[in-house]
Specification:
Structural class: mainly beta
Distance between the termini: 42 Å
Helix content: under 10%
Bound molecules: ligand MTE
Amino acid sequence: MDKHPALVVHSEQPFNAGPPPALLREQYITPTSVFFVRNHGAIPTVDVEPYRLVVRGQVLRPLALTLAELRAEFPATTLAATLQCAGLRRSELFMVKPIPGELGWEADAISTAEWRGVALAAVLEAAGLEQDAGHVAFLGLDTVARQGQSFGFGGSLPLHKALMREVLLAYEMNGAPLSPVHGFPLRVIAPGYIGARSVKWLGEIVVQSEPSDNYFQQHAYKLFPPEVDATTVDWSQGEMLGQLKVNAVICEPGADTMLTAGSVPVRGYAIGTAGQSIELVEVSADGGVTWKSASLTSPRQPWTWSFWEAELTLPAGRHELVVRARDVTGDIQPADIASQWNVKGYMNTAWQRVAVTVS
Ligand code: MTE
């Protein structure tokens, strides 16, 4: 696998890794070698010859498409889109209360690429939808072991999202065929939704009236209130995660950096609710008492993160830098991280705080 040697490996098997924040912040379109990786099982080897994308369920014309047919019969489209895992910034929640059995993702479970493929809507249109269609479920060709059973990773999108033009069946990433680790030969890209819905190694699309019954829709990737813990959780409850929420991160300086008094550059990224663009990023050098607007340095467009930067004047001492963002829909982040704790450690969108020492 052609990954940058600086990536922090969170687990070898299955392979999970993310770039250090300063490396992540270097390029707006993340080079494929730097792009984070989130797997729940081993990376499958998919042979293109026998490969068929099956489309079935509540459709008028079930399909079994070769990759060549997919490329020839549907218009290709290219889209820059950020992929963000629901586990982004989980490690900060560990300080509130432990979350046993989950990976300690930092601000690294996010990256942006140029994806090329076909609109999912075009394939669904070719298949024709029956009247009861309400959700579009995806099944990966990988094998994941959970609760004593083995099955493919899966999840679904509500039909209204699946029909949006930004949702792709992608076969290229950053101008090259998908690499095995990122889902070769075909994956879903669902911009504005948690990364888990962007199913890799896509084998099947099933149109149905209910959300996917896959473990990763019905059990994992559910959000519970902070008072629910591992002893009280009822897995039949909880909110199935879908849309991302507005979030912002300081990539530089890193936590516990030693800085020289004076003007200090602060840089990071922000992402809007449901993939909408960012309107405002503010930074604080005093733990959130006073704020300064940051400059947005990237194009204002939906589906991708925004890069921002600011200069803060810091005297000697210990300082808590804080960042918060607002998106174009007016959505803002919660201040308090304790209110964000949940039993699986998803969707931490609290103001991010980074302590630094200035001499
Ligand atoms: N698809 C399959 N088949 N298996 C997986 O384990 N992980 C999901 C999603 N698609 C996963 C999958 C999760 S949780 C995320 S965040 C993204 O893929 C990560 O995509 P990446 O590894 O290309 O960054």
